[in-house]
């Protein structure tokens, strides 16, 4: 199997309309979905990878078809380092961040899936991990919810066995921090003192406001505060860290190890949340994981738990996965029998590669839309 050759790449856009009123501090969520990549080989093996299809999925699909696929035909999926470097420089004028890098990320993940399948190994074991059980926290709590709805969802998460939950702050576009304080207090009272409690502001505040808010809610034992300021405002993130002792989580909007390096050098992160479906796939994420270990920071990737479970299981500093409840429907549609968390633990299947199988009936439906 080591002489596998890539013969083609298929991309399918799968999406669903959001059912309910989902809005965070800066954005209304209308549709969610995946751009699903299927890399075929001359020996019948297929590798799958995924990135987001919310805004710009059509551009991702076309970029893979016209820019990336021609560079892959005839190459071996084991060439992940060489292929990454070639494609990085090929698309560097348009692709160091954004949709082009999302596109390459999905393809790279599919190559790693192929490597695991060719070797007959789950990726977490191929990467050096031994424990298939990975902690995972529940994530939701939209700012568009009333306080009663927020509390009800938090209780639901705990009732499902999650030991840690994350909710959003920044109501009214971030213009009413005092109401956020009241909502945080209500949730903490409802879930009790023993449940891990994290917050996500989705980039809404300037550093001074974020620091004021953080210091008002520190009594509620917040495990981390995510993106209190705009993700690209590295000085603002650093200012936040200086102004409060609540750990700072960020990184989901970074692309490549260079952005991550700058977060570390500027003392602008405690818990790193990079997303393999954006930063360059497993190839770049492994470099980022090494950086996070060198700077002695926790690694807790953003969303996409089925793409990230192998990485967290293999990382000495991997702390947990994130389950975004809003993706439940599309996850259950795209995959056949994908693992689900039980009592806050995701158990990785002992199957080669990612250990995932596409629901081809659903994929065919997506193609026909």
From TrEMBL:
Gene3D superfamilies: Enolase-like C-terminal domain (3.20.20.120), Enolase-like, N-terminal domain (3.30.390.10)
Any Pfam family hit: MR_MLE_C
Keyword annotations: Magnesium, Metal-binding
Cofactor(s) annotated in UniProt: Mg(2+)
Mandelate racemase/muconate lactonizing enzyme C-terminal domain: residues covered: 147-247
InterPro entries xref list: Enolase-like_C_sf, Enolase-like_N, Enolase_C-like, Mandel_Rmase/mucon_lact_enz_CS, Mandelate_racemase_C, Mandelate_racemase_N_dom, RHMD-like
PANTHER family noted in UniProt: ENOLASE SUPERFAMILY, MANDELATE RACEMASE, MITOCHONDRIAL ENOLASE SUPERFAMILY MEMBER 1
Identification of the protein by name: Mandelate racemase/muconate lactonizing enzyme family protein
Organism annotation: Laedolimicola intestinihominis
């Amino acid at each position: 199997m080591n002489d596998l050759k890539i013969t083609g790449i298929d991309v399918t856009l799968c999406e669903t309309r959001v059912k309910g009123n989902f809005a965070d501090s800066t954005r209304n969520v209308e549709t969610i979905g995946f751009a699903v990549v299927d890399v075929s080989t001359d020996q019948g093996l297929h590798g799958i990878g995924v990135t987001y299809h919310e805004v710009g999925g059509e551009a991702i699909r076309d970029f893979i078809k016209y820019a990336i696929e021609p560079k892959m035909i005839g190459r071996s999926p084991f060439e992940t380092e060489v292929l990454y470097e070639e494609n990085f420089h090929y698309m560097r004028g348009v692709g160091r961040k954004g949709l082009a890098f999302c596109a390459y990320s999905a393809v790279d993940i599919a190559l790693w899936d192929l490597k695991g399948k060719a070797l007959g190994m789950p990726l977490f074991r191929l990467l050096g991990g031994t424990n298939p059980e990975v902690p995972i926290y529940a994530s939701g709590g939209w700012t568009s919810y009333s306080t009663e709805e927020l509390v009800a969802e938090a209780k639901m998460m705990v009732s499902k066995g999650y030991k840690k939950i994350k909710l959003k702050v920044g109501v009214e576009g971030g213009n009413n921090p005092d109401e956020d304080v009241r909502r945080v207090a209500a949730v903490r009272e409802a879930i009790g003192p023993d449940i891990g409690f994290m917050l996500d502001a989705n980039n809404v505040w300037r550093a001074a406001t974020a620091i004021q808010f953080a210091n008002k809610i520190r009594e509620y034992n917040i495990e981390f505060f995510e993106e209190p300021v705009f993700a690209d405002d590295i000085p603002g993130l650093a200012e936040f860290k200086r102004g409060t002792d609540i750990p700072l989580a960020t990184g989901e909007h970074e692309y490549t190890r260079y952005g991550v390096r700058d977060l570390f050098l500027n003392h602008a992160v405690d818990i790193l949340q990079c997303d393999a479906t954006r930063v360059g796939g497993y190839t770049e994420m492994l470099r980022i994981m090494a950086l996070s270990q060198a700077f002695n920071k926790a690694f807790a990737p953003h969303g996409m738990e089925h793409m990230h479970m192998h990485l967290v299981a293999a990382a000495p500093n991997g702390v947990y996965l994130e389950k975004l409840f809003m993706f439940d429907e599309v996850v259950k549609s795209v995959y056949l029998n994908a693992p689900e968390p039980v009592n806050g633990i995701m158990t990785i299947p002992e199957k080669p590669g990612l250990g995932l199988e596409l629901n081809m009936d659903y994929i065919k439906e997506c193609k026909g839309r």
